[in-house]
Amino acid sequence: RKLYLYNPLLKFFSLFIKFIGNYKIINNNKIIENNKQYLICIHPHGLFPIGSLGCFGLPICKNIKNTIPILLSNNIYVAIASFCFYIPLLRDFFLFLGAIDCSKPIIEKFIKNNYSIVLFVGGAEEAKFSNYGNTNLICKSRKGFLKLAFENNLTLLPIYTFGNNNIYKSYNKDYYNIFYYFKRITGIWFPRGKIVFKKINYISVIGKEIIVDFED
To answer: Fewest CB atoms less than 10 Å from the CB: which of 51, 106, 107, 173?
Structure first.
């Protein structure tokens, strides 16, 4: 059900996204063409990665063609929490954006069909660190994506989006670990805090490719 990037429906939705932020992509490395398979790893997740969505997932940022034209093709999908596909309408919205279930069997199925995959490496748990002007990343415990790259000979592409954490001021209190178990069951970290009603500048910086190579 994935829609083409410049589909009228996505253009209409992009008007709302554009209203709440400014978006820019910086790539001082070589242009990321659609000539190889990538595992694109994005930080931070934030409460909801509005900045990354605006820069890469919707027809807002005008320099996609000159920085990462692979996004203009139909050969790339973004993997998100399984729970998002259990909710009617929300499920269809993410399918339109080109989202798939982030479970390993599903991801590997798409990889074997020669698709590139986008991952928010910190996942939903990183959302609990979403706080205005603050950045904490979950990295050390996230090694599965590296194994996935090695097993499938994928090229890693690191991306960091500045501003993703600035839409929310969080309060990290968890009485009796209620929210912790909610996250374990659903895959979603229940937010506690308040939304920041302010137009934010989002800048996605694309790092150098990391070539996965096996040594005998």
So the answer is: 173
